[in-house]
Amino acid sequence: MRVLGLTGGIGMGKSTMAALLRRAGLRVFDADAEVRALQAPHGRALPAIERLVPGCVRDGVLDRAVLRRAALAEPAIMRGLEGILHPLVRAARTRFLERARRDGCRWVVLDIPLLFETGAERICDRVVVVSAPAAIQRARVLKRGTMMPAQLDAVLARQMADAARRRRADIVIETGLSRHDTLRQVRRLLRAMHAASPAAWAAYRGKPA
Ligand SMILES: CC(C)(COP(=O)(O)OP(=O)(O)OC[C@H]1O[C@@H](n2cnc3c(N)ncnc32)[C@H](O)[C@@H]1O)[C@@H](O)C(=O)NCCC(=O)NCCS
Ligand SMILES: Nc1ncnc2c1ncn2[C@@H]1O[C@H](COP(=O)(O)OP(=O)(O)OP(=O)(O)O)[C@@H](O)[C@H]1O
């Protein structure tokens, strides 16, 4: 089984890309969704999160806006939150990979925002980075209306710079153009995955197979 890592900065288009890969029949592990499941009503991480930010859980339900505000205002709280969540996300990822291996999958996808930051690229055969110009990234995130500009800056400060991520990628998918163009790039990626030959991969910028 081969593992395709999928990463990119906030709002660069990971979820959109993951949906396209799922539609092509690939199994995708979604680290953000795993975090949300752990933080869902009565989720496993809630008791520890309530100890970290007292008052952010009421009747077994997390006030996500309160947690977001606290974590983005105070780096120590974000570190504490990561300390609670990352080991649980890693364990879920291991279970996902074991299941996929048992089921005989040829390729699976790990959609992980902090793939490089946490060293998860070590378990990937290839890494895809989704990327768009910084102004487009900013506009996309702020349009959602869940984050103030200063909060977005706090997230960006905790993430690797886009240029560094692009340098470490095997494949860069540009999402700042039209959706049609992204789709074209994804089809090309799927063809290379299907062929799994060094020549097909050599068509991409980056490390040879
Ligand atoms: C801080 C929280 C509450 C903000 O929630 P919110 O609904 O605004 O965002 P969501 O979870 O959908 O994440 C959106 C994006 O924010 C970025 N992001 C989230 N957490 C982090 C982090 N610790 N460091 C850097 N970027 C992050 C990622 O690009 C992610 O794709 C939440 O992201 C969280 O609990 N983060 C800690 C866990 C974590 O590290 N998750 C990231 C990958 S496992
Ligand atoms: N290829 C694309 N072309 C045009 N718009 C796109 C493309 N990919 C994503 N978008 C738009 O950009 C926004 C962010 O996309 P998406 O949610 O996939 O990003 P993300 O990286 O998963 O975000 P986050 O890091 O916050 O989880 C969405 O509004 C989406 O519609």
UniProtKB/TrEMBL annotation:
InterPro entries named among the record's database cross-references: Depp_CoAkinase, P-loop_NTPase
SUPFAM superfamilies for this protein: P-loop containing nucleoside triphosphate hydrolases (SSF52540)
GO molecular function terms listed in the Swiss-Prot or TrEMBL record: ATP binding; dephospho-CoA kinase activity
Chief location category: cytoplasm
Any single GO CC term annotated in Swiss-Prot or TrEMBL for this entry: cytoplasm
Pathway: Cofactor biosynthesis; coenzyme A biosynthesis; CoA from (R)-pantothenate: step 5/5
Top class in the EC scheme: transferase
The keyword Transferase belongs to this UniProt entry's keyword annotation: yes
Entry keywords, A to Z: ATP-binding, Coenzyme A biosynthesis, Cytoplasm, Kinase, Nucleotide-binding, Transferase
The keyword DNA repair belongs to this UniProt entry's keyword annotation: no
TM helices/strands, residue ranges: none
Compartments, record wording: Cytoplasm
Pfam families (UniProt xref): CoaE
Superkingdom, taxonomy of origin: Bacteria
Catalytic activity: 3'-dephospho-CoA + ATP = ADP + CoA + H(+)
EC number: 2.7.1.24
Residues reported to bind ATP: 11-16
Single GO BP term: coenzyme A biosynthetic process
The family this protein is said to belong to: Belongs to the CoaE family.
Function recorded in the entry: Catalyzes the phosphorylation of the 3'-hydroxyl group of dephosphocoenzyme A to form coenzyme A.
PANTHER family: BIFUNCTIONAL COENZYME A SYNTHASE-RELATED, DEPHOSPHO-COA KINASE-RELATED
Protein name: Dephospho-CoA kinase
Annotated organism of origin: Komagataeibacter xylinus
Gene that this sequence comes from: coaE
